Known about the structure:
Blueprint lengths: L1 E3 L2 E5 L8 H15 L8 H5 L13 E7 L2 E12 L2 E9 L8 H15 L4 E7 L3 H9 L3 E2 L12 E7 L1 H11 L2 H7 L4
Parallel strand pairs: 5-6
Antiparallel strand pairs: 1-2, 2-3, 3-4, 4-5, 6-8, 7-8
Helix pairs in contact: 3-5
Amino acid sequence: MTNDMSHAFLYTSPTDPRARPLIDELIYEYDSRYGSYFNAEGAAAELNRYPPEAFAPPQGNFLLLIRDGETIGGGAFKHYDERTAEFKRIWTRRDLRRQGLARKVLVELEEQAGRQGYSRIYLTTGFRQPEAVGLYLKYGYTALFDTSVDPEVYKSLPFEKDISHLVQERLENEMDEPLLRMAGGNL
Length: 187
């Protein structure tokens, strides 16, 4: 668990009981915005589309943002391809939005994906989630769709972000001094 002031990130699994608030609110949120638009069985079917193991290291991860013992946010990523992590389930508690919590989750997920060797992020959000679209655009994600077109045309809105600088920073921090000297030409 890593701490950030009064918040803590807990790396765990979607089956952790502390993840229940995240899952329940995501189901509620998606069902209230989309109903059966994407799936006749609603959001629960979408959230259960991937097994918990898809979000487990070494290829994935699942984190919760905890404040005073309560789950207030979270997110996950899974393997998309050799260099790409796919972010899923990014969420903050409804009554705590507009406090920068989603950004905290997003940044932590990016850093963890970089630590796990990914150099690119891919994610999708639904067309009825303008807050998410705004968050991703504000924090350096490239829309893989025409943002001037009504988003309902696309239904699912894909984004990407290059995080290769995070992988490079990780590699540089892991190198010990003799390796740095050798790399710099001082043999």
